[in-house]
Design brief:
Layout (H helix, E strand, L loop, with lengths): L2 H4 L8 H23 L1 H10 L20 H4 L18 H6 L1 H10 L1 H12 L1 E6 L9 E5 H17 L7 E4 L7 H13 L2 E4 L3 H16 L3 E4 L1 H13 L9 E4 L6 H13 L6 E8 L4 E4 L12 E2 L5 E6 L13 E7 L10 E7 L3 E2 L12 E2 L3 E3 L7 E2 L2 E2 L5 H5 L8 E10 L8 E9 L5 H16 L5 E4 L2 H8 L10 E3 L3 H6 L11
Parallel strand pairs: 3-4, 3-5, 5-6, 6-7, 18-21, 19-20
Antiparallel strand pairs: 1-2, 7-8, 9-14, 10-11, 11-12, 12-15, 13-14, 16-17, 18-19
Helix pairs in contact: 2-3, 6-7, 8-9, 10-11, 11-12
């Protein structure tokens, strides 16, 4: 794809004009790429009686049925569904198009054939994590990798990096979007980026050595892992005075996490450090960043790329699109992708502040933004504690429940059966590593109060550890993603609760 096609100044348009352009691009994309070359959408549009040329506005999109995770997993009757969502070009259709004939006349048939191979042939695969369903692969062509470099470059620009900066990409080396988006961000921005592969490749020690020797300007990675690396560096009295940016993905980033990371950077001799989150998911094949939001008390939201995809916010119960600024479930539709393509994909992610077209109060950019906290629409398991059974608690609330307590460095919530007896009640055990010297009784009270305020339950036990022990419990340098909430209950009990929304009960 030509770079000028990707770099149109869509970010300075009025909302109505922007939506009109998105509607026109969507109509062409559906008519020329998705419906002719995707087995799934060719069948779906025929079944629903939808002419892709009739989709002229974003409002018309509501006639297209949603795609969700269940459509992507293997079907017992039809087998693998992966290929059904990959754009497989029909040579006969391509040859009939006037644009193809013009390209042949200008460049010759060999060059045109090579161009189509770059546009459609899968070259790279990433995969979903498989935590809620079987892992699903997503394929990229060279065309898609160009887009990944563009979204990466925009990420660097929005986060106010600089080509002269030295970046360390600490995302785990794996077929996951986070690593590859960070990798192509360095390539797209033409800046030095060392990819350490996270803890599983170089080990935590290797990442600490890179921090010491390279004296980077920016770190990119998961919040928990970066915290541990910085914490070890502080414990050893190291210095890293050049740090200016920390860009995070793969986990939520509450205010407490940002404060703790900035405090560690200060102990390493850095000045003001911007800590920014990103949002992305495998099916989008791209991620979106926050800007630093200088002087703002709250992050200004995730800056989208409206020329590359459409974000809708829907009521998760009715499926209807909600108004600007209203909360709801995030739905994504690409506008230029090849390889694996999903249309009106229900992410299962809930955004508390919805979608806005207002200029960003931090940087002034006029591209649309996602505002507020992102969490799973449904994320529940059931615990049976004491005499009370079946009290439901949203697991989203557990993932960051202690992050905003400044006296806690790291922590882990463990769910287990009492005395490891499969028939016994469930227990909640909180493992914590305090920051500095603290009063343990008062910290226990604060943790218990926090649990009751958020979940209406109280942990059975709170255990104190040093930072090294917490790193071991969380799997730092061993697990692909550090574990902050672990379920060690009997496997049979846990499997019975898979469809429940995350739950705990009073002790």
């Amino acid at each position: 794809m030509k770079k000028e096609t990707l770099d149109k100044s869509w970010h300075s348009l009025a909302p109505d004009e922007l939506r009109n352009l998105q509607g026109r691009r969507l109509r062409r994309y559906l008519d020329e790429q998705v419906v002719p070359f995707s087995a799934h959408y060719r069948e779906l549009f025929a079944k629903e009686g939808i002419d892709p040329r009739s989709i002229r506005t974003l409002e018309d999109m509501e006639r297209i049925p949603f795609t969700s995770k269940r459509h992507l997993v293997d079907d017992p009757e039809r087998g693998s569904r992966v290929r059904d969502f990959v754009l497989v070009p029909d040579e006969a259709i391509l040859k009939r198009r006037p644009s193809t004939l013009l390209r042949v006349l200008r460049h010759g048939p060999a060059a045109v054939k090579e161009g189509f191979a770059k546009e459609y042939r899968p070259l790279l695969m990433t995969s979903t994590t498989g935590r809620s369903a079987e892992p699903v692969p997503f394929f990229y062509s060279a065309h898609d990798l160009d887009i990944l470099a563009v979204t990466g470059r925009r990420m660097m620009e929005i986060c106010e990096s600089h080509p002269d900066f030295r970046h360390i990409n600490m995302f785990p080396f794996a077929p996951h979007l986070a690593f590859w988006q960070a990798h192509y961000a360095g390539l797209g921005y033409n800046t030095f980026t060392l990819s350490s592969g996270g803890g599983k490749v170089m080990g935590t020690e290797g990442n600490v050595r890179f921090l010491e020797r390279l004296k980077p300007d920016a770190l990119i990675g998961m919040p928990t892992f970066i915290y541990h690396v910085l914490q070890i560096a502080v414990e050893r009295g190291l210095e890293s005075p050049n740090l200016k940016k920390i860009v995070l993905g793969g986990e939520k980033v509450p205010p407490g996490t940002r404060r703790k990371l900035r405090a560690l950077c200060a102990e390493l001799g850095s000045g003001k450090v911007d800590v920014m989150a990103t949002y992305g998911f495998t099916e989008a094949k791209m991620a979106w960043p926050e800007c630093p939001g200088h002087g703002l008390s709250e992050p200004p939201g995730y800056h989208l790329s409206p020329d590359l995809g459409i974000i809708e916010i829907i009521d998760p119960d009715t499926g209807k699109v909600v108004g600007e600024g209203e909360p709801g479930e995030i739905v994504f539709t690409p506008l230029t992708s090849r390889g694996s393509v999903v249309i009106r994909y229900r992410t299962g992610d809930h955004i508390s502040g919805g979608l806005t077209y207002l200029p960003c109060p931090g940087c002034g950019r006029t591209m649309p933004r996602l505002l507020g906290a992102i969490s799973r629409v449904t994320d529940v398991r059931r615990l049976h504690i004491g005499k009370v059974k079946g009290t439901l608690i949203n697991f989203n609330e557990l993932e960051n429940i202690l992050d905003n307590i400044d006296r806690i460095g790291t922590w882990q919530i463990e769910l287990r059966k009492r005395d490891n007896d499969p028939l016994a009640p469930d227990e909640i055990i909180v493992h914590v590593a305090p920051r500095g010297r603290v009063s343990r009784p008062s910290l226990v009270t604060e943790i218990e109060n926090r649990f009751r305020a958020v979940t209406e339950v109280t942990p059975n036990r709170i255990e104190f550890h040093n930072a090294e022990r917490l790193r071991s419990l969380q799997g730092v340098g061993r697990a692909l993603k550090e574990e902050k909430v672990v379920d060690h209950r009997d496997a049979a009990v846990a499997s019975d609760d898979k469809t429940e929304l995350s739950t705990l009960t009073e002790s």
